[in-house]
Amino acid sequence: MLCLWSFCFRALGLVLASLILIAIPASAQDASSGAIRGTVVDSSGHPIVDASIALVDSAQGFRYFVTSDSEGRFVFEFLPPGEYAARAVAPDMSPQLTPTLRVAGPPLRLL
């Protein structure tokens, strides 16, 4: 019974997660690089700790990887300008994909 309850809790709480991303030029970077910062949360808005986030440069295929911290936050810094796709995965969570992120120009917040 405990195992079944645990499974139900995880299924309800972590089936959907949202990935909030901010593509901005970071202050320590020059005009030729930028950053993507975000938070991985579950459907209730609780942070997902240790989620694996992969970022792929759409034009050149370069891949970058980070893990979310204790508050679900992550950052990719010193990225060349361009378009990227992001994917977040964690145990008991459906993979979440953000297919188009642009690094360049003024701060941009994507929900």
| N to C succession of SSEs | HEEEEEEEE
| Structure classification | mainly beta
- CATH fold label: Immunoglobulin-like
Helical fraction: 10-25%
Mean pLDDT, to the nearest integer, reads 75
State the low-pLDDT regions, or none.
1-29, 106-111
Top CATH class: Mainly Beta
Lateral strand order in the biggest sheet: 5-2-1-8
Question: What kind of oligomer do you see?
Answer: single chain
Gyration radius from CA atoms, angstroms: 15 Å
- What is the CATH homology-level superfamily? Immunoglobulins
Instruction: Note the beta-strand portion.
Output: over 45%
Number of domains: 1
**Main sheet makeup:** 4 strands, antiparallel
Alpha-carbon distance between the termini? 38 Å
What is the number of helices? 1
Backbone shape: globular
CATH architecture: Sandwich
Give a count of the beta strands, DSSP E runs of length 2 or more: 8
Please provide a brief summary of the model:
The chain is mainly beta and 111 residues long. The chain is built from 1 helix and 8 strands; from the N terminus they run αββββββββ. The protein has one domain: Immunoglobulin-like, CATH 2.60.40.10.
Tell me what the structure shows.
The protein has one domain: Sandwich (Immunoglobulin-like). The longest helix is centred in the first third of the chain and has 13 residues, at 2-14. The chain has one helix and eight strands; from the N terminus they run H-E-E-E-E-E-E-E-E. A four-stranded antiparallel beta sheet has the order 5-2-1-8, with no helix packed on it. It has a four-stranded antiparallel beta sheet with strand order 4-3-6-7, with no helix packed on it. It is mainly β and 111 residues long. The protein has one helix at 2-14; strands spanning 17-24, 34-42, 52-57, 63-67, 73-79, 82-89, 96-103, 108-110. It is globular and about 35 Å long. Helices cover 12% and strands 49% of the residues.
